[in-house]
Amino acid sequence: MSVHRFEADRINNKSVSLESYKGKVMLIVNTASKCKFTPQFDDLQKLYEQHKDNNFEILGFPCNQFGEQEPGGNEEAAAFCKLNYGVNFPIFAKVNVNGPEEHPLFQYLKNQAPFRGFDENNFNEKLLKMMIFDKNPEWLVGNEIKWNFTKFLIDQEGRVIKRYEPTDEFSAISADIAKLVQHESVS
């Protein structure tokens, strides 16, 4: 089984089969335009520019489930990314990533790459955990996506390789992408 069996809507509501990304390494990210982590669009765009010529793609999925930080429509979300961060990787239609209306792709991603737990030695993760406890304590348990800018690394065959939390360093993500595009294993 792979992510290639899923479909997702682009911002124009036209469905796209993720099979069209077969042979590419992907980073699938739930995003938001009004989040503490929104500046990560800069880092995501840099990753995209760095690796796009090596069969790499980033797929952005706006989500309004975390503090209502993506309140606008699909076009507004995509325009924000382009105008403020120069994003030119694909932005898809808004989705839910947790709960009864979650997109099947994200249910699959979470099952394939479970939540690793919070690193209590990481100050930012401690803050994130406290914020989630305050706003959405039900997401503290299990494999639920904890907040915006959770990332999933997918190999060329559509297998989920790794999950990154919003607080993970981009240098580690970039190194893992570099290994995959060179057909090396990621630990």
Brief characterization of the structure:
The protein is of the alpha+beta class and 187 residues long. The chain has helices spanning 40-51, 74-85, 104-112, 123-135, 170-181, and strands spanning 7-9, 15-17, 25-31, 56-62, 151-154, 160-164.
Descriptive notes:
By secondary structure, this protein is an alpha+beta fold. The protein has one domain: Glutaredoxin (3-Layer(aba) Sandwich), CATH 3.40.30.10. 31% of the residues lie in helices and 16% in strands. The chain is built from five helices and six strands; from the N terminus they run E-E-E-H-E-H-H-H-E-E-H. It has a four-stranded mixed beta sheet, with helices on both faces. The protein has a two-stranded antiparallel sheet with strand order 1-2. Strand 5 and strand 6 form a beta hairpin. Helix 1 packs parallel to helix 5. It is globular and about 40 Å long. The two termini are 21 Å apart. The relative contact order is 0.20.
Question: Can you give keywords for this protein?
Answer:
peroxidase; peroxidase activity; 6 strands; Thioredoxin-like_sf; alpha+beta; two-stranded antiparallel sheet; four-stranded mixed beta sheet; Glutathione_peroxidase; GPX_CS; 187 residues; Glutaredoxin
Query: Could you give the count of β-strands?
Result: 6
Per CATH, which architecture?
3-Layer(aba) Sandwich
Q: Rg from C-alpha positions?
A: 15 Å
Largest sheet geometry: 4 strands, mixed
Mean pLDDT: 91
CATH topology: Glutaredoxin
Terminus-to-terminus distance: 21 Å
Bulk shape: globular
Detail the poorly predicted runs: none
Order of strands across the biggest sheet? 4-3-5-6
* Residue fraction in strands: 15-25%
Helix-strand pattern, N to C?
Answer: EEEHEHHHEEH
Quick one: CATH class? Answer: Alpha Beta
Number of domains: 1
Number of helices: 5
| The CATH H-level homologous superfamily | Glutaredoxin
